[in-house]
Structures
1.
Amino acid sequence: MAELPVRLTVNGETVEKTAEPRMTLADFLRERCGLTGTHLGCEHGACGACTLLVEGAAVRSCLMFAVQADGLDVTTVEGIAAPDGTLSPVQAAMRDCHGLQCGFCTPGFVMSITALLRDNPKPTDEEIREGLSGNFCRCTGYQGILAAVHQAAETA
Amino acid sequence: MTETATAPTPPTRYTGSRVPRVEDGRLLTGHGTFVDDIQRPGMLHACFVRSPFARALINEIDASAALALPGVHAVFTAADLNPDVHEQWYSSYGPKVPDTPRPPLASGEVRFVGDPVALVVAENRYIAEDAVELVEVDYEPLTAVADYRDAQTSGILVHPKYPNNVAGGLAGPPPQVVEAAFASAAHIADETFYQQAYAPVPMETRGMVVEWSADTDELTIWAATQTPHEVRAFGARLLGLEPERVRVLMRDTGGGFGQKVVPMREDMCVMLAARKVPAALKWIEDRRENLMAAGQARHEHGHARIAFAADGTILAAGIEHTQDIGAYPTPWPVGAAAAVGLLFPGPYKVPLASWSTTSLFSNTAGRHAYRGPWQFESVARELLLDIAARDMGLDPVELRRRNMISRDELPYPNPAGMPPYDHSSPLETFELALKMLDYDAFRAEQAAARAAGRYLGVGTSTYIEPTATGQEYYACEGAVLRVAPDGRMTVIVNGGSSGNSLETTVIQLTADALGVPFDNVDTIQGDTAVTPFGSGTAGSRSGSATAGAVGEAAAALRAKLAELASPRLGVPPEDIEVADGRAQVRGSGQSSGQSSGQSLTYADLAGPDGVEASATYTAKAPMLWSNATHVCTCEVDVVTGKVTLLRYIVGEDVGPMINPNIVEGQIAGGTVQGIGGALLEHMVYDEDGNPLASTFVDYLLPTTTEVPHIEYGHMETPAPGPGGHKGAGEGGAIGAPPAVINAVADALSPFGVKITNLPASPAALVALLTEAGH
Ligand code: FES
Ligand code: FES
């Protein structure tokens, strides 16, 4: 299948590559850009593991084609910590609250929580639960994750 | 809330504290290494052609169109791969058990929807998936055994060599042992409980990269696994290679919960095919395959009985258990089922028990291990106790109080054939959890709510579980401790952590064992070329087993350091104390970490080559008993059948905790998996054997909107194992389903509703309420 040029900004850097029209943004980032932090838990838009930010909005990258991101600004989990490696408040809270075990769902949660708190810096518990209901975690029972969102909201 | 049974162990610096995890930095920033992150030069991608029929003959496979597609390298069928199997058995059971069939690819007949029929290899996953569509398989559909409950009467055989589809069975004390007690009982509770199929569903599906190096006869496997050394041993046997020629690597595994404890048929195929292709071969399962073909657990029923005296004292108990093992269970399923019968009496004073278990094939996905594989004992017992209490007009809590074993009554015999219960605290965790709830206050609240037309309920579940088995294969764990020339320490263990926090755990243990700062210790795990043998993360064993291995390796290292210090301190080694990061003459009282005439740091002693010691720990106790009580409250909407969980309390005893965060994380994860099993998750098949829940739209996992806030109450009764630590990995998934179901049943008790079928989905509850005339 013919490949099309894709030019986008990923974590602040310009990326120019090609992709088949059917290649998902998730696969493009993982395989063409070497950014394997974006994980695939279902590839049908249900689990949220592949969540990243496109033009600032939380998006499931398994449901978007790379060519649809042409010209857009993408942030992945690799672009969340400070350049010196300092964890973002959300990442630090996840660590403090034991919000991750295997870590497979974690990038999706970091991205979803980052977007959630940016849009609603002081969410209620119900708003947090509602906002994260599209992200699945099979290890933590969500206890540490929910605690982390509260902590990140309080310290922000 | 924490209570300690006996005097606390001497103060240590890291064991027992909420040390942040060393795993988190890489995982939070997208720099973990999961199997799908592995790239190799020229790597090829595998994808399976799977059966669309539950049972059919394979007449012909035509791969010509697939092979003609540009980018396709090969299409393998059973004829290509199956004859290459050298030996196929799992270390935990050995080669001699009457194992069930397990061919790599289906040969002649497919036996469930998703049965792997052919393996396509292509230059990328997209092309491989295209090619799968082009492989033409001529099937002749046959009637299937879609439900194991029909297996013995259907006249259809899943495997021709197993009459009536019985894979095997085991029995403990026979029913005659309890008949007199039942005959004289004032009250008998007698029900048949059915539990639906559900599964581990790790967020990372299964996967493997296998690279064969023909020049050197070496096989390298990157795996999503809980047991790197077993993958190596199994792979070596499968291919007829020396284990030393097989190297298994894993860094991060995205959850396992039993599903990744041993290699399965697809893993066998990828290992076998890797020798036939010119580059590394990657297989990453997709979610549909995972839900359709990775396997199922929990699908079983049991006829359970308890005989009571007039005052509610238990006289005898019995269970006849039958489980679905699907078409291709992994590993041999018959032996493991004995635990259901052995543990059915649970943490109660039961004088007599009888049990039997039968394993039946069906044309569905194979049974495999899932966190607390025997948990049906708790489901059947705890549901039956609540039903019995209601029938006898007793509060379920009161009925349990009259029968539950307390710590000061231990050791207490198990009448079903287990060694006696010991070093645990069933009644104490029960009372702790009820106190945290304020049971009486809840009953008052419930009464007030009922008067207002709202239906609240409370349910409890108390279990005792054998952890960290001393059974031969699982008893072993090795550790290597190394001091670098600069004094920095490395602890090397097998690993197999799939979220179990084993890196943090062994660093805590090592730092304490040698009296060095946590930050001065690194760990290497998950590479069979450099790690000693260990049997992986299974059976709630890793905390205890690594504590044993690190403890013994640390003792050996201290002895070596004392030898090295002896000439320099001018005293014999036995007069030297190695602790707090230094070696010094016993009783000389130097301050930590400083060298002087009488004290040497580890760096002083390590020399340019460093110092290293290793040990293999073997568990001596047959098992370490962990126990817990789960208490759940809920509200049920009697119109929609929707269950809202209100409070969730776990009073538990895993002995002294190495890291309370990690223990609580394990409890929470297991509990929410159990909540999913009680209310949501269901691997449904239709009457033809088609799976109806092979996406996350149909297979419902618990999410943030369903889970309650979990409260923990800890008790710490030490076990006769390293550090007194007991296993914590599985209990949550055992205790949760009965607590939740009992809470729902309690809420609906005004309607006379009895729940004996799981899950308690909204539709199931509405049906029960309708049946009850509501
Ligand atoms: S992988 Fe995209 S939502 Fe699951
Ligand atoms: S931490 Fe394992 S799935 Fe969330």
2.
Amino acid sequence: MKEHTLIVLLQDRAGVLHRTVSLLRRRQFNITSLSVGHSEMPGISRMTLVVDTADVTQVVKQLDRLVDVLVVRDVTEAPSVQRETALAKVAVDEDALFALITRVRDAGARVLDVAGGSVVVEITDSPVRVDAFVEDLRTMGLRELMRTGRLAMMRGEVEMSRPQAFREQGDGAGEEDAA
Amino acid sequence: MSAAMRTGAQIICEALIRENVEVLFGIPGGNIMPLYHALWEYHAHLRHVLCRHEQGAGHAAEGYARASGRVGVCIATSGPGATNLVTPIADAWMDGTPLVAITGQVSRAVLGSDAFQEVDITGITVPVTKHSYLVSDAHELPRVVAEAFHIARTGRPGPVLIDVTKDAQLATVTPDWSQPLDLPGYRPAQVPHADSLQAAADALSRAARPLILAGHGVIQSGASDALLAFAEHTGIPVITTLQGLGAFPQEHPLSLGMPGMHGWVHVNRAIQACDVLCNIGSRFDDRVTGKASTFAPRATIVHVDIDAAEMAKTVRADIPVLGDARRALEALRVLVPTLDTASWRATVHALRAEYQPRQAYVRRERIAPLMPYDVFDVMHETFARRADWRVVTDVGQHQMWAAQLLEWRRPGTHITSGGAGTMGFAIPAALGAAIAAPNDTIWAVVGDGGFQMTNQELATIQQEGLRNVKVAVINNGHLGMVRQWQELFHSRRYSGTPLSGPDFAALAHAYGMMGVRVERVEEAAPAIERAWRHDGPSLVDFRVDQGANVFPIVPAGSSIGEMITQ
Ligand SMILES: Cc1ncc(C[n+]2csc(CCOP(=O)(O)OP(=O)(O)O)c2C)c(N)n1
């Protein structure tokens, strides 16, 4: 089993998320993280999917088979940036506040709110660094935590968002009939 | 109302006619009534077959599709009507049968409120449909119906569901028939890449012990002629999966027969011995491969498939060839030279001589007056004299005996539920096949268990005047295949398998059909002849021995090298 990060472009249509998640569940692919939202193109959503699997090509092919899925790309080995965000509420007394704020600053996180003995902080960073920061917070009075799924984007001039181009170059898919 | 305006229901009818649909199988009800109201006007073009259960309607549409090569269409109302279609939809999904199911849905205003007969059928069928639509705007119908048929029939064919709200069926709009298909994410492969074809050709050209495994895909892409030409040109022997029966003429010297759990010993041995296995249009189902990791251990595997996701799903694909089977075969015929397979064929034929396919089924003295395989022997003889027949089998022992003991010569003549193994398939599917192939005699071969699941469709067969349906009930008083497993693998504990039933011949009479009972082997041939000649649907109730088993058998999960032959 290995963790794989996939980028998926899909038609923004009713039921498409259900179909995608149902497929992964049915085929026993383990979802570690999933985030989905708008892409730069109207009507096309973009998903970053992290799956734990021994057979990522099956995941890619099965997703690709869905009618509303335009592009599936395994970016695990590709040069990419990956980010997660976490909001955390930490209970601190006045004495500990300074230490917390220092930690937040060192980690490149932000304090969003300070009220009545608790502080809400936000961190957006690579998954490993978010992990490390959250572990830190656990020793400092972590009360609540909300993490997003992962977002991934390839570096450089890769044209992720042109389904057609990707289809034609990629994955051994045959050409289609003129019809 | 302007001349161009139509109700949503009328648009559905016209869209179906544009797809060259001629027959629909269904049952009406509240939320699909507007469509039935419209069907009345279009009856000259669209024949509606009223089934007795929506499951029957779905299987009938499948049987129609399998016999005609066209898309089968079934209709049901919302709620229970729609859920009754789930089994045939799943069946079509597993066997890659092109099917469009149209269901009524509650009106948009009450969607999601648990309204009367509301069921989330698009949600329920997500795992077993290629795609589905919930339509609440009649303007979308021309495009949606066209897309549904396109998806159902292309690539690896399969079921598509269109769920239409009642208000969309009732709405009056001006249909726009010029809407293009909007399926940018759906691009099924067609033409195999030259590189992959060359790699396959190189492997085959170097092979000393090559083997072709022909599956359903050969039949679906109309590649039987291309397969015959390729096999004859190269001299490579051909084995055919359950769903591939008929893809290659079984009487041909290069034909070896069926592999897998109930395949012939020499076929499974050939697979284990071959050095190149060229799978064309089979998805390496576990009933074919046995324990997948031990399958064809010495072979380079060439896998020709229209569906990329089938490659390396269960068995490694050393050389995947993505694309249509017919195109691949035509291309390979040019690329692969005539091979010297004489000694390899001699080896396999020697194996065949050693493990006589029919050896377990030889009539011995002092056995029951009618053994099930006697029936198939007689059928085989009767069928051999004729060409105009097709057989639809149900699921169980009789299905395997039919596959083993009848001679399959033409594509589309063997119709069965393979992937899902749906008992109750045969009678309704035979009704659909009878409509698709009115000039052929359709034999439904069915166990007494499966027959009692959907035999209500005999009424449909009568009402539709389908004279070309003949039913052979292989009546062993048991859920036979399960009984066999209990005997072989579950210490003969016959839990829940003894089965009673009515007098099936009398039941046939009650439905207005000819019905006869056969209890002795010498009665079998005359009964089959009589049923065949009878100008109307008929049924033969074969009271066979209750303890007969299907051999050979590979125990589930074992290697196909390990067969029990007696
Ligand atoms: C709908 C459904 N239920 C249960 C099964 C499990 N099953 C497989 S074969 C079989 C026995 C079939 O008995 P019968 O129809 O009498 O045929 P036979 O095996 O005796 O030829 C059963 C119960 C199934 N395949 N389908």
